[in-house]
Amino acid sequence: xxxxxSVKNFRGAGCHSWRIMQxxxxxxxxxxxxxxxxxxxxxxxxxxxxxxxxxxxxEQTYRYLKKYESKLFNRFLFNKHTNIVQSSENFYWGGxxxxxxxxxxxxxxxxxxxxxxNAFDEPFEGASTYYMNIIVQFKxxxxxxxxIYFHPFQYGTLVRHNKQGYxxxxxxxxxxxxxxxxxxxxxxxxxxxFTTRKVNNN
Length: 202
Hints:
The protein is α+β, with helices and mostly antiparallel strands. 21% of the residues lie in helices and 30% in strands.
């Protein structure tokens, strides 16, 4: 079986999303034997991969891996195999469904929100949040300015909107969201909040 990330730290599914969330930029790609336990068989071929800083979302990740995958498969086909026994203490992560699982928690700091949004960006639908109790998805997110103090009550507030995108207050930073997707027509008002869950307006 081919596993396109370290089987030591990322067994299971959706693993590059988990890696991006953890800001891990160094991993391995592996070919391992099949057993009755997921991703636990001995590793027969392995190659180290280091992601540069400009590779930060899934679409970029998959493109970047292609050259390493060719090298790994050639090594597997034409070179002597290894037989690396895996530890029983490896980490397993479950699969993810973006529209079901990827909801932003506005108590997180700006770096945590950024890595979370990157983990569900292209080719997937984007991280979700609520705006006026309507679910929206964020695409192309960045930290516009770091180390700005906002009170926790201000987190998630839309403070600026221009051609660059939507500027949102968060813990320790000002977030810029360049694209917001919704299946409903929305007028975004300054001073209104994006929220972790629906708000009871009664």
